[in-house]
Amino acid sequence: MSNLLGHYNYWIVIVLMMTGFYIVIARPNLIKKVIGLFIFQTSVFILFISMAKIEGGSAPIIEEGISVYSNPLPHVLILTAIVVSLATTALGLALIVRIREAYGTTNEDEIHVQDEQD
Amino acid sequence: MLLANLPALQVVIPLVSAPLCLLLRNPRHAWAWATLVSTMVLAVAVMLAQRVYAEGTISYAIGAWATPWGIEYRIDMAGALMILLIAAIGAVIMPYARRSIRHEIARKHITLFYTSYLLCLTGLLGIVVTGDAFNLFVFLEISSLSSYVLISLGSTRRALTAAFQYLVMGTIGATFILIGVGLLYMMTGTLNMTDLAQRLPEVTDTRTIRVAFAFVTVGVSIKLALFPLHIWLPNAYTFAPSVVSAFMAATATKAGVYVLLRFFFTVFGSEFSFTAMHVGEILMLLAFAAILVASLVAVFENNVKRMLAYSSVAQIGYTILGISLASTAGVSAGIIHLVNHALIKGALFLALGCVFLRLGSVTLKDMHGLARHMPWTMAAFVAGGLSLIGMPLTAGFISKWYLVSAVLAAGYWPLAVLVLVSSLLALIYIWRVVEAAYFNVPGAAMQKVKEAPASMLIPVWLLIGVNLYVGIDASLIFSMAQQAADTLIGQALQ
After folding, report:
1. What is the pLDDT of residues A70-81, one digit of tens each?
2. What is the span of the domain harbouring residue B472?
3. d(CA B305, CA B310)
4. Domain tally for chain B?
5. Which A residues, 9 through 48, put their C-beta within 8 Å of a C-beta on chain B?
6. Residue B473 falls within a domain, yes or no?
7. What is the reported pLDDT for A62?
8. Which of B163, B171, B182 is the closest to A95 by Cβ?
9. What is the CATH class of A2-56+67-117?
10. What is the ipTM of this complex?
């Protein structure tokens, strides 16, 4: 039981990940899809950052009397991944603007209907 | 000094050139700049490949930070073959792009097109040269993001939805890879691929590593459009500008296959991937389905571009079939087919681009009698089609020959039959195009259709020429693929 709750960070990651994934799959609204995608990616950032935490660990600055440090590398990696995810979201939203200009809607089902009429 | 830094230059040249390209507002200048850069990239790739061929694997520490702390660029024979392929395709399509892009893309977007193209080239080359698992993710996203832009520049509004669909699936795929890399880092504390390979055996029998393997495999499979994760590909290829379809078909999915090879053989090791995780059987089944289903769909397609897109899904199946055997013969057959298919599909999509330039359409009923008006384009299409089917004296025959012999050597004769059946299906769908273009009476609209300009025909015929050359003398590509497969599988044994 303590093992299940002790890893609560993973539970948060899993719940967020599945929430995001579900939104991407189930919502026909393209903007909501992008939001879902962003939540999905954010869950992975938390996975990375929470794995860097070491109990009792301090910031990685050399100081007398401290021998346990948290790992700073995952934070750096995630900084890069955040930039990537930001670019993806921006591009996705830009595409939605163009799609709305061309189709007059941001609903996937309505777009399919229009595509079939072409 | 310059020679020692070639691995970095391979990526840095197109990366730095891309924002500079954006400053050139004149489409003609942007084109000239992109062409110059592509040529330089090809020159660097040739020099690198020569060095790998002569001296073996190159390891390069970025910023002189020693591995495994710094990022390592590592080019072995498989990598050398891939950078050569990507850089060569990139350079060949550039002379073609000028006319085709001017026709298909609005003038104000042309500079943006060449900028995205250079970024895409950067990403694809980076995927190949890097020896760092996280760096690979970053390059994968550079190439993916720029290819979403390239696809969305297509001339119909459906290009936008195709790009969006690809963006959603591609991002899920890339995030899966990121999860896999994170779990690997969690267990080993390293991101360098060689270092990972050394540290993984200690922790290999844990659920974390198995989950990491599954995430990476599925993520990469989305990127390389392995059946049934291919659904983004037909729309993306159909609605993208012609040059982009050719470039993507010849390079992007191929880089995905390369990532799969890297993870299976270099990082996880073939022992773990194929014996413990049984990924070979799964891949074989999916490849089987890809070859059969996608070829069948292609037979019934009336839009030729979409037909070729489905054919691409089937051809990726062949490559994966070779890899799934996990034998030297199988992997080298997979690599040979990877290169040959890039040459074939590149040529076919470029030929279709010529058709689109003059006809404004690529559906079968609009192509009736086209061969009389565009004899060189259609002859190139037929030559590429024969290579796709696998006629002797073409590149397609070489790869199918090695593939069938590898499959037979592994004792899977039903799969050999499948390869032959699917070649028959390819014969049917290529024949439908030939029938429309050669044996049907042209309509009235056909009268003013002229042959495509030489600047577009020469790149098409260059690729066809390489196809025929490989069909006659496959010794160079065979020895490179053999060596690449040996290095990949050999790493697992160490």
Report:
1. 888 888 899 999
2. 278-494
3. 9
4. 1
5. 21, 24, 30, 33, 37, 40-41, 44, 47-48
6. yes
7. 82
8. B163
9. mainly alpha
10. 0.93
